[in-house]
Amino acid sequence: MKTGRIIIVISFFFILVSAGQNDELEKSALPERQTVIDSWGREVSIPDDIERIGCLYAFTAHVVTMLGRGDDIEAVVYGSKRDRLLIEINPHIAEAGIPSDDGIINIEELLKLDLDVIFLKGETALLDTEVEKLERFGLDYIVIDYETVEEQQRAIEIIGAVIGREKEAAAYNSFYNDAFRRVEEALVSLEEEEKLRVFHSVNEASRTDAPGTLGAQWTAAAGVINVSINDPLRFHDNKHFASLEQIYLWDPDVIIYNQEGVGDYILGSEKWSGLKAVRKGKVYQIPVGISRWGHPGGMETPLALLWTASTLYPAYFPDLDMHEEIRKFYGTFFDYRPDDVMIESILSGKGMRMPKGAVRAEE
């Protein structure tokens, strides 16, 4: 009897040891994870080893490409496939899936892509129905959202941390800050009465900047008086618009715009013809590269700042050559060396984005 009991005890002991070993093996088989804090302050647990990236916000596809992980992007939004320079630098994006349209996620298509992490636009994350889709299937997502220069830089830091490119993100933000410093030093003697009054048209002729936004910050840093930031604007679909009557009251010295075709509309419209900027031909297209420079969802904010300041105050920037700035920027951060033809295309802003609907037609 004693012998039998001893055998049972020993057997039970080995079962416990074996079970413990199995638990340890199962734990060791689980992928290592890290915790990051996204733009909303959410603590998110994600895999340490990120291999397949979903960029459901165009800005994040720009940044992931810039940080050297463009070949790992497996999901994008339609807008990313419209950016000609982005596709030239990172042809892999042309083959990426599009599981989201105007913020609405096709969860079946998304699941097929087997992503390790998803970068989600703040506007989409506000939609409970879309977030529920991700959470129902346990998909890891990082909210990327910003309104200001500081928040945009933080967003770049977050993306760098998620994909293991912290040093590259820090290098870009260093350049970003240096651009602001260079402009500030160049314009140190600019008198208040010398400052030009500017209307910044964003995508649509009458869409513009509100106070405290990215556009308000970088235009102010460029030494101009942004006429739209001190008066009430119409808010619609998360965008700010000025009435034409209000624009006439401002009567800006200069109009800058970022959407191809808007300048032709403004200069050719009888309704806009009485404005000082139109009468004097002071209507300028902001360059377009990876994205529209200075756009709320674009990452080339430092270039928009340098271009605006040097274009409107050339006497203060005798040594600044935007052709050379472009060569250095894309060479340094995208390992891409644009030829003279591409540089002129970037500066003109023409033909750099495919028309809306063109990508959908190809699908």
From TrEMBL:
Residues annotated as domain Fe/B12 periplasmic-binding: 52-316
Pfam family, one: Peripla_BP_2
Annotated InterPro entries: ABC_Transporter_SBP, ABC_transptr_periplasmic_BD
PANTHER family for this protein: MOLYBDATE-BINDING PROTEIN MOLA (PTHR30535:SF34), VITAMIN B12-BINDING PROTEIN (PTHR30535)
Name the record gives this protein: Iron complex transport system substrate-binding protein
